[in-house]
Write a structure and sequence with these properties.
The chain has twelve helices and twelve strands. The chain is an alpha/beta fold. It has two domains: 50 residues, DNA polymerase, domain 1 (Orthogonal Bundle), CATH 1.10.150; 277 residues, Aldolase class I (TIM Barrel), CATH 3.20.20. The strands form two sheets. It has a ten-stranded mixed sheet, covered by helices on one side. The longest helix is centred in the middle third of the chain and has 14 residues. The protein is elongated. It starts with 11 loop residues before the first helix and ends with a helix. The structure holds iron/sulfur cluster (SF4).
């Protein structure tokens, strides 16, 4: 069977190249973009304002293929975890979360992850591969097909993978989410473990989303243990980079801080965290650790979580306690993980 590339997932630049190669004017590429992403048709026959001959040629050389989920798990709190099996047998997960202020979709950017954060189940998969823009966008369109919710919605790139290590496909996806689906960049948050070089690239566009930094520690010693990326770019370097990012006047960087019992939840941690974020227009999301059997970290007692929150408040640091959604279906922060194709085969064989 001969492989045909997918039109769905190509950004405007690639569509323009396709049109030019076929001797079509540029506006035809814009029309194709609209059919693919605004109208989301699944066949070239439906693209009635494109010349018939070009449609036939495109049908010969390309397919339009949308991702479909293979399984979904419904949480008591209303969130739904979607599992997708990709063409190579790999699996990824995404989460639909109905929130007080509308729907948020949490998407994956890679199969597995190379960042090896010690508090995260995805890390245990190791890195398998980057997702294509079609696979990133396909998570959205599959969920949109399954759920009825009003646009606009929010997207957080906080599922499996480090999005900034898949920057090219992420940027195509950002273009499609904004120009195609009509989402404001303010509704899209890209969360990074702190890949400083690519963070600087992301912050200058072409589409600049909201930025979240997974910080999780108040000392390098702690962060080295939790997030090996810190050995390359320590907290000082990360903070200096954040301070220098061209963040718009009314925007804030979000710092995520997973609170772990007797590890990073002391009064001294709150004090150090306050110092680190001083001078950065930001807010801090405190995420009580989601316990799982395979990780030894524990969630701090409620009183400690509240005290940490209170200490930041007193120091004037804007912060919120974020209780993860979907804990009963393994969809909470740090809980997304699929068996690798090899492990899956082994599991299925038993
Ligand atoms: S927390 Fe994010 S960056 Fe770290 S291993 Fe998990 S998915 Fe990767």
């Amino acid at each position: 069977m001969s492989y045909k590339p997918n039109l769905f997932g190509l950004g405007s630049g690639s569509l323009k190249t396709l049109a030019e190669a076929a001797g079509q004017p540029v506006f035809r590429a814009n029309q194709l973009f609209e059919w693919l992403y605004k109208k989301r048709v699944s066949s070239l026959d439906e693209m009635t304002n494109l010349p018939k001959a070009w449609r036939a040629a495109l049908a010969e050389s390309h397919v339009i293929q949308h991702l479909e989920y293979t399984r979904k798990l419904q949480s008591e709190d209303g969130s739904v975890k979607y599992i997708f099996q990709l063409d190579d047998g790999s699996e990824i997960e995404s989460v639909y979360m109905p929130m007080a202020k509308g729907v948020t979709l949490c998407l994956s950017s890679q199969v597995g992850c190379a960042q090896a954060c010690s508090f995260c189940l995805t890390a245990k998969m190791g890195f398998i591969r980057n997702l294509s823009a079609a696979e990133i966008m396909g998570q959205i369109t599959a969920i949109m097909k399954d759920q009825t919710f009003d646009a606009p919605f929010n997207v957080v790139m906080m599922g499996m993978g480090e999005p900034l290590l898949n920057l090219a496909q992420l940027q195509v996806s950002l273009e499609v989410m904004t120009a195609g689906l009509g989402l404001s960049p303010k509704r899209i948050t890209v969360s990074t473990s702190g890949h400083v070089r690519n963070l600087e690239k992301l912050a200058v566009g072409p589409v600049v989303p909201r930025i979240a930094i997974s910080l999780n520690a108040s000392t390098d010693e702690q962060r080295n243990e939790l997030m090996p990326v810190n050995l390359k770019w320590d907290i000082q370097t990360l903070m200096d980079t954040c301070r220098a990012l061209p963040i718009k006047a009314r925007e804030r960087i979000t710092f995520e801080y997973v609170l772990i019992d007797q590890f990073n939840d002391s009064d001294a941690d709150a004090k150090r965290l306050t110092k680190w974020v001083r001078g950065i227009r930001c807010k801090v999301n405190l995420i009580p650790f989601n316990e799982t059997e395979s990780l030894s970290y524990r969630q701090p007692p409620l009183a400690r979580i509240q005290r940490f929150h209170e200490l930041l408040n007193r120091a004037g640091v804007v912060n919120t306690i974020r209780w993860s959604k979907g804990r009963d279906i393994g969809a909470a922060c740090g809980q997304l993980a699929r068996p690798t194709a090899r492990e899956g085969a082994r599991l299925r064989a038993h």
